Amino acid sequence: MHLHHASGGARAVDEFVAAHRPRVAIVAGSGLHGLADALDHAVHVPFSDLPGIPSPTVAGHGGELVCGMLESLPVIVQRGRAHLYEGHAPEAVVESVRFLAAIGVDTLIVTNAAGALRTALRPPTLMLIADHVNLTFRSALGGAVREGEERFPDMSAPYDAALRARARQVARTLGIALEEGVYAGVLGPSYETPAEIRMLARFGADAVGMSTVNEVIAARALGLRVLGISAITNVAAGLSPSRLSHGDVLRAGERVSSNLERVVRGVVRTLAGT
Ligand code: HPA
Q1: Quick count: other Cβ atoms within 10 Å of Cβ 48?
Q2: Over 60: is that where the pLDDT of 216 sits?
Q3: Potential cystine with 80: which of 57, 63, 133, 234 (Cβ 3.0-4.6 Å)?
Q4: CA-based nearest residue to 32, from 73, 2, 72, 77
Q5: Taking the CB of residue 70, how many other CB atoms lie within 10 A of it?
Q6: pLDDT (tens digit, 9 = 90+) per residue, 116-140?
Q7: How far is CA 254 from the centre of its chain?
Q8: Around 255, how many Cα atoms within 13 Å sit in the side-chain half-sphere?
Q9: Model confidence pLDDT, tens digit, residues 236-248
Q10: Taking the CA of residue 68 as centre, how many other CA atoms within 13 Å lie in the half-sphere pointing to its CB?
């Protein structure tokens, strides 16, 4: 059982949980790590101290849980995540979500970097995730049903409407542009071809990225409410003359990360006392 693992890092999480009962966790994706540095009284626990949570291998992706206070609310920020394209099984990709649910988190805020299909999304900008299309064709829910999860979780409202309304309200108040759209989750690690982007647009996608969908499916199976925000870092392949590069994606993520942080902080502030 996670909570009773002997390592110092796991013990640090246990102590934070016992003292503060955090109910909100935030997954900070590529180039979006500012949130992890924004916590007061932060305790850093590398994934390697937490059994079953694989350490990410991609430069810029990090890999730790940071426990601390954000807007006076106890939160856990997951800095970095495991991706399917690193060769991890879907179960490994969602292990951190299962861990967070097991320690009592009931609200998950997921962030990622994504390419824009819709022309109204001008990078770098933010997109509230209204819905997703799981084009990884994988699921972490296969096999025996795990304790606390459903066999056939409903996915008709994966991204909580009330949390989205709060995010819109916060962004409006702060004067931060926040479009809303459908995120297509693909396997990667190659970026898409122009033909694939045309296909994804026909599938109803507004943005595309290589994470998040399996985590959200696991979160919903566990009954967590989810808020998702994409940092739109680039125009998708074929929709601009530019080639795509991971470096450009990270840099664009960094340029929009302070706005992302402000929106997330604003939402977290509204969660205090609820
Ligand atoms: N495609 C897939 N994943 C991404 C992209 C993209 O254009 N940008 C950031 N992550």
Answers
A1: 13
A2: yes
A3: 63
A4: 77
A5: 25
A6: 999 999 999 999 999 999 999 999 9
A7: 16
A8: 13
A9: 988 888 888 898 8
A10: 19
Residue 162 vs residues 169, 225, 227: alpha-carbon distances, Å: 11, 10, 9
Could you give the CA distance from residue 190 to residue 52 in angstroms, rounded to a whole number?
26
Nearest CA to ligand 1 atom 2: 209
Residue 270, burial from CB neighbour count under 10 angstroms (0-12, 13-18, 19+): middle
Residues 183 and 159: their CA atoms lie apart, in Å, by: 11
Ligand 1 centroid vs 251 CA: distance in angstroms? 13
Nearest CA to ligand 1 atom 10: 114
Pairing verdict, β 73-79 and 207-209: unpaired
Spacing, Cα 191 to ligand 1 middle (Å): 6
8-32 pLDDT, tens digit per residue, is: 778 999 999 999 999 999 999 877 8
Q: What is the pLDDT of residue 3?
A: 47
The one-letter amino acid code at 92 reads: A
Q: List residues with catalytic annotation.
A: 30, 61, 83, 85-86, 113, 210-211, 234, 246
pLDDT digits (tens, 9 = 90+) for 185-214: 999 999 999 999 999 999 999 999 999 999
For 49-88, what is each residue's pLDDT tens digit? Answer: 888 898 877 665 568 999 999 999 999 999 999 999 999 9
Closest-CA residue to 48 (of 10, 99, 16): 10
Expressed in angstroms and rounded, the spacing between residue 25 Cα and the centre of ligand 1 is: 23
pLDDT > 70 fraction of the chain, expressed in percent and rounded:
95
CB distance 172 to 165 below 8 Å:
no
| Ordered DSSP codes for 59-91 | TT---EEEEEEETTEEEEEEES---GGGT--HH
Query: Could you say which DSSP state residue 153 is in?
Result: -
* DSSP structural state of residue 160: -
